[in-house]
Amino acid sequence: MSQPVSDGLLQLVRRCNSFSVKDSVKTCKKFFVEGKQVGLIRSSFGEQMKKFPDTFTFSPDGQEIHLSDSLTTVEQRTDNLDAVLQKLRQDHTFMGLRGWRDEKYDVRQKYEDKTLLRMERSATCMRFLDALFGVLQYGTHINGYTYRKDGQMMMWIARRSPTKPTWPGKLDNMCAGGLASGLDVLTCAKKECEEEASVSSEQLEKLKAVGTISYFYQDERGLFPETQFLFDLELPSDFTPVNADGEVAGFQLLSIPEVRKLIVSDSFKPNCALVIMDFLIRWGFVSADNEPHYAMLVEGLHYPLQSVYS
Fold first, then answer.
1. For residue 172, what are the contacts with CB-CB under 8 A and spacing of at least 6?
2. Neighbours of 155 (CB within 10 A)
């Protein structure tokens, strides 16, 4: 691997792990539900929460914000918080809520924990300017690959629709999507394959779960603690993905060397580039013998999010 690409991989890992929980003590308040920390809240949003005393309470030192203990069920918490968010949305208090999805994510401290409430997707991340909840988010990403007649591995790369609210026009994995409330991981992965690439149920029998990556990054939009469940899918050489939900502008079939160069460019959505980096490592295209930063790259793909709030 050439040194510029190698350095680019390291820069990519650092970009996707750019947030420091330790440094957040100065700017953020901890968010608790049922006594468990599930997120981080910027101080500016904390002031807004004081307008809703039936929903939020504060610790004596003001550094912790709790969802009220009077809300004892998932349904009560979900409905009460949804009413608050709808009010903030109507008042145009926070820009982030303009991207309302009508899709909810489960909120919990760790993935294996019980769901504490369900939150509107646009409110789950923590935004610098319109700081919301900073709760852990989950998704599924699928690497679609095939082989040419000469045996060379090729990978299907998607280009996001120019109308997508986030990262419009950027290169992406063949299929990917957030884990909405009520969906298990495998069902979500299959759903994304069907909707984004028209993969048949017969072809989905080859869908293989291959682990996770996790990272905690910040950019001009906010804070993103995310874990992605990864799948590999070998496809027939004569298969061509066709988008069915309007979220993909098109697909291209590229060689592994071409993909390896693209993921360190600005044309790729950064977290999706990490998914492909994990693929390259697992398949041996990036190894300890050809990549000087190998150990750091592997470590950087696994931010300890399942313990970060506990």
1. 157, 158, 159, 160, 248, 268, 269, 272
2. 22
Q: How far is CA 65 from CA 48, 62, 263, in A?
A: 12, 7, 39
Pairing of strands 28-33, 64-67: parallel
User: Is residue 102 left, alpha or beta, with left meaning phi > 0 and alpha meaning psi from -120 to 50?
Assistant: left
Q: Is 175 left (phi over 0), alpha (psi -120 to 50) or beta?
A: beta
Q: Is residue 101 classed as helix, strand or coil in its secondary structure?
A: coil
Calpha distance 46→52 (Å, rounded) = 11
pLDDT digits (tens, 9 = 90+) for 224-244: 899 999 999 999 999 999 999
Ordered structural domains, the chain, with CATH: 3-18+138-308 (3.90.79.10), 23-137 (3.30.750.160)
3-class DSSP state for residue 26? helix
Over 60: is that where the pLDDT of 304 sits? yes
pLDDT tens-digit map of 137-150: 999 999 999 999 99
pLDDT in tens, 244-282: 999 999 999 999 999 999 999 999 999 999 999 999 999
